[in-house]
Amino acid sequence: SLLCGSSLSIGSIQPLLEQLSPEAPLWGLSLHVLCATRMGQHGDCMEKLLDHCPQAIIPYANHHLQDAHMALWWQKLLPELCNRTRADADNGILLAALKETLVVVAMEMSPAEFLELLPDDGTALYFLPH
Predict the structure, then answer these.
(1) What distances in angstroms separate CA 16 from CA 12, 51, 92, one per listed residue?
(2) Cα–Cα distance measured from residue 58 to residue 62, given in angstroms and rounded to the nearest whole number
(3) What pTM was estimated for this model as a whole?
(4) pLDDT recorded at residue 25
(5) How far apart are CA 106 and CA 104, in angstroms?
(6) CA 124, CA 51: separation in Å to the nearest integer?
(7) Which of 3, 87, 91, 96 sits between 20 and 30 A of 52, alpha carbons compared?
(8) Phi-psi category of 86—alpha, beta or left, where left has phi over 0 and alpha has psi -120 to 50?
(9) Are the C-beta atoms of residues 11 and 18 closer than 8 Å to each other?
(10) Rounded-to-integer distance, Cα 54 and Cα 56, Å
(11) What are the 10-residue block averages of pLDDT along the chain, 130 residues in total?
(12) At residue 71, what are phi and psi to the nearest 5 degrees?
């Protein structure tokens, strides 16, 4: 996390990240996510976490998607989780993340705004169990 702190410019870290694979054992993904977060690339971070460590998506979102970034819960995270859980309905980790995301979105939006987020293609029934 020292590499991602404010004492180093992100430009000096970029060459290291280009050489380091996100799949590197133990710390590759963490380093990529920390640096991308510092650069404000929350969407990329969410995709990396969902691809490689989905159990970390809700702690990441709870910590980093606040205030000015709160809209990413429903603009990016909710649609991505919906797509992924439709493709893999038996994935308990993704279902738990979807439920938590629905709770956050429902608390932050009015009921009318929340209903507008639900798909209008007849798949709103998908959300009823959650």
Answers:
(1) 8, 22, 35
(2) 6
(3) 0.79
(4) 66
(5) 5
(6) 25
(7) 3
(8) alpha
(9) no
(10) 5
(11) 69 76 74 84 92 94 89 88 86 92 88 77 54
(12) -60, -20
CA 97 to chain centre: 9
In contact, 60 and 42? CB cutoff 8 Å: no
What pLDDT shows up at residue 62?
92
User: Which residue type sits at 11?
Assistant: G
Using the structure block, give the residue that is written with the tokens 């738990």. Answer: 96
CA dist 62 → 7, 57, 90 (Å): 25, 9, 24
Residues contacting residue 101 through CB under 8 Å, at least 6 positions apart: 58, 61, 73, 77, 78, 81
